[in-house]
Amino acid sequence: MISVNICSPTLDLAAPWDDLVQRASPNVFMNPAALTVANEIGFARVRVLLAWDDSAEPRKLVGIWAFQVRRISRLWPALLEALPYNYAFLSSPVVDPAFVGVVVPAFLSAIRTSPLLPNVINLKSLDAEATSFDMLVKTLTEQGRAQLRLSESTRPFATPELGVKRSGSTRKKLRQDWNRLSAAGAVDIVNNGAPDTAEAFETFLKLEASGWKGARGTALLCDAADAAFVRRMVAALAERGSASVALLRVDGRPIAAQVLMYCGATAYTWKTAFSPDYAKYSPGALLIDKITDELFSAGRITAIDSCSYEGSFMTQLWAGHRKMADLLVDVGPGKSLAFSLEAARQRGYGYLRWLRDWIRAWSMPAAPKSKKVSFAAHR
Fold first, then answer.
1. 350-362 burial, b if ≥16 CB within 10 A, otherwise e?
2. Could you tell me the domains of the chain?
3. CB–CB of 122/342 below 8 Å?
4. How remote is the C-alpha of 211 from its chain's centroid?
5. For 312, which DSSP code?
6. Could you write out the DSSP letters of every residue in 233-293?
7. How many beta carbons lie within 10 A of that of residue 10, not counting itself?
């Protein structure tokens, strides 16, 4: 028998979570440690759906799905966002594959019958290759629920079998950049977990603020609330062995930082930053390239999610891709006004983004005849 309860996240879920992710589809952004931080400091209003196998003794957690309750304005209907807080990059539920056929419908039913949760759900960055995705679409279709597929894309993704590109212009440039950087000083890479993560994360924040994101005002340190949240989130994850910060150093000086997160056998390249003084060496790409090999060679990690968009520089490094989808659904009866309003808003937002990209494309100077590999920052 499966039961579902809705609650606020707490660290009491840590042990059931650790057990669940050993057999379930991964999503580090559903980790109770991160959810609890977001909810406790008011960074997001997080609600967690927990599915339990009541036939087990003691009962066993077989599914978790977290949402934030959001309202665009006071006059706008509230809705659920399946990215449970800003800076989460995957909204898929974590479900034991043996129970996916009953847990996903039970989750939707729990939302529909709860007087405290909106029925309209914005499902951005869903893993379209997870078994939970097929069951979600199947259940919504069979129940006649309103659903709108906003977009489909692919995300750079690496496995030991389909990982780093071993040949071509990208590989040649990486070798050249590494050799040139090595000639500039003693190069090494460190990737330590807690308690060293806090200091390494501060290094990442400073590197990010020193680059183009700092100049544009989009670096994490440019917003006090964002900086406070990510500091506590990374610290909470690192304390449980679910986060680390890898540093690329020259003569002991960090020139690039990669924030890594972990869930089960999957790693996530959450955020990258590098020193603009060393930009000509592509330090961010070099660090990710070396860390990818290091993670796979250790044997514990079997997949790496880039947390990046289709067409980012990660595509030049990795051969694998993961199908992604954005959905808007209404689990209530019929098609509500809230669903129609949010669908119109999402379509309008999508058009404005397309128009922005179109204007940028027309305003960009013509590309040079000689093709060069570019490693632009991806997040």
1. eeeeeeeeeeeee
2. 2-152+324-361 (3.40.630.30), 169-319 (3.40.630.30)
3. yes
4. 22
5. S
6. HHHHHHHTT-EEEEEEEETTEEEEEEEEEEETTEEEEEEEEE-GGGGGG-HHHHHHHHHHH
7. 13
Strand pairing class (46-53; 2-7): antiparallel
What is the pTM (predicted TM-score) of this model?
Answer: 0.91
- C-alpha count within 13 angstroms, C-beta hemisphere, residue 340: 4
pLDDT tens digits in sequence order for the chain, 379 residues long:
899 999 999 999 999 999 999 999 999 999 999 999 999 999 999 999 999 999 999 999 999 999 999 888 777 889 999 999 999 999 999 999 999 999 999 999 999 999 999 999 999 999 999 999 999 999 999 999 999 999 999 999 999 988 777 778 888 999 999 999 999 999 999 998 878 899 999 999 999 999 999 999 999 999 999 999 999 999 999 999 999 999 999 999 999 999 999 999 999 999 999 999 999 999 999 999 999 999 999 989 999 999 998 878 888 899 899 999 999 999 998 788 889 998 888 888 777 877 877 887 787 555 444 444 445 444 5
Number of residues in the chain: 379
Beta-carbon count within 10 A of 93 CB? 26
d(CA 161, CA 183): 32
Tokens of 343: 């669908």
Ordered DSSP codes for 197-240: HHHHHHHHHHHHHHSHHHHHT-SGGGSHHHHHHHHHHHHHHHHT
- Within 13 Å, how many C-alpha atoms sit on residue 128's CB side? 15
